[in-house]
Write a structure and sequence with these properties.
Layout (H helix, E strand, L loop, with lengths): L2 E9 L5 E10 L2 E6 L6 H8 L7 E6 L2 E2 L4 H6 L1 E4 L11 H11 L5 H14 L15 H13 L5 E5 L7 H12 L6 E6 L2 H7 L2 E6 L2 E6 L1 H6 L5 E5 L5 H7 L1 E8 L2 E7 L9 E2 L4 H7 L1 H13 L1
Parallel strand pairs: 3-8, 3-9, 6-7, 7-8
Antiparallel strand pairs: 1-2, 1-4, 4-5, 9-10, 11-13, 11-14, 12-13
The protein binds adenosine-5'-diphosphate (ADP).
């Protein structure tokens, strides 16, 4: 199975161009769509999920035309939107059972088996009788994926699923995603670089509606391998380093900043060569560093 997106563009009525000529070829396995807030990820996810129209371009799932054959696509689709509401007074088990009926699983015994398996898979068995209104963020996301997996989807879209989860729940959720299977397409949209580096065999980075990098994390990392340098500096020197180097990021150790910069060769012997990571790649795109900084300023 293959998802082909070609020259997809979308401008909202308020004039915001959320997607500009997006072209992506997505094979089976986990695909990470990475980008800062406002990059256009949700717009793209909703369009693939047949919930929104594009202005131009095409999307094909094998031979299916996603933009016109919506009903057919929906039969193959599992979608976990960024924000989804739950009925607070219904239990996880009853809700899954109800959605299973809607998905056409009418045989009661078969339905019970499927719901049991999904509750087990998402580690919600012990909480099956609890009302969804009392679920924590992590439990709710796991319930969401159980719901999205009903009916054996071949294309699974999860939009920013780890935002707001604590590290334990985030790991649990990512492990769950990685177990979903090798023969389906899973598209994970996120602004968290580690979500992608931990899991995805293919990825793309989008910024301001445009694809700025795509490929396998390994391939992409090779392009900056041996070019990332680290140095501990004084706080007062930060602005000068930002101005004079191809600055990637900084973090504090015991109150003192350690910076990472990109350069073809060692800038001077006060810099140490370090292994490049996906975050370096992400910040090596100046427009992304700027977008992330704006997002921080805007809170
Ligand atoms: P992301 O998911 O990467 O945060 P979105 O797809 O939500 O990005 O948004 C991309 C851009 O489109 C943003 O500038 C956002 O404000 C704008 N946008 C999203 N939805 C709408 C809408 N319904 N109407 C107008 N503008 C929108």
């Amino acid at each position: 199975m293959r998802l082909k997106i070609e020259n997809l563009s979308k401008t909202y009525p308020n004039g915001v161009q959320a997607l500009k000529n997006v072209t992506l070829d997505i094979p089976t396995g986990m695909f990470g769509l990475l980008g800062p807030n406002g990059a256009g990820k949700s717009t793209l996810m909703r369009t693939i999920a047949t919930l929104q129209e594009a202005d131009e371009g095409s999307i094909h799932l094998d031979n299916l035309d996603v933009l016109t054959e919506k009903e057919e696509v929906r039969k193959l689709l599992g979608y976990l939107p960024q924000d989804f509401g739950v009925y607070p007074k219904v239990s996880a088990e009853d809700m899954l059972d109800h959605v299973a009926v809607l998905k056409g699983i009418t045989n009661g015994r078969e339905r019970k088996e499927i719901v049991d398996t999904l509750l087990k898979q998402t580690n919600l068995q012990a909480d099956r009788k609890k009302n969804l209104g009392g679920f924590s963020g992590g439990m709710k996301q796991r319930f969401g994926i159980a719901q999205a997996l009903l009916g054996n989807p071949r294309l699974i879209i999860v939009d920013e699923p780890t935002a707001g989860l604590d590290p334990t729940e985030r790991n649990r959720f990512l492990n769950l995603l990685s177990e979903i299977g090798e023969n389906v397409i899973v598209i994970l949209s996120t602004h968290i670089v580690a979500d992608v580096s931990d899991l995805c065999s293919n990825m793309a980075i989008i910024s301001k509606g445009e694809v700025v990098l795509k490929g396998s994390p390994t391939e992409l990392l090779a392009t900056i391998s041996g070019k990332v340098w680290e140095k501990t500096i004084d706080k007062t020197e930060m602005d000068a380093y930002k101005a004079n180097y191809n600055f990637l990021s900084s973090r504090l150790f015991a109150g003192q900043p350690t910076i990472r910069v990109l350069a073809d060769s060692q800038p001077d012997d006060s810099f140490q060569g370090v292994e490049a990571n996906l975050e370096d790649l992400y910040f090596s795109r100046g427009e992304i560093a700027a977008a992330e900084e704006n997002a921080l300023v805007e809170g």
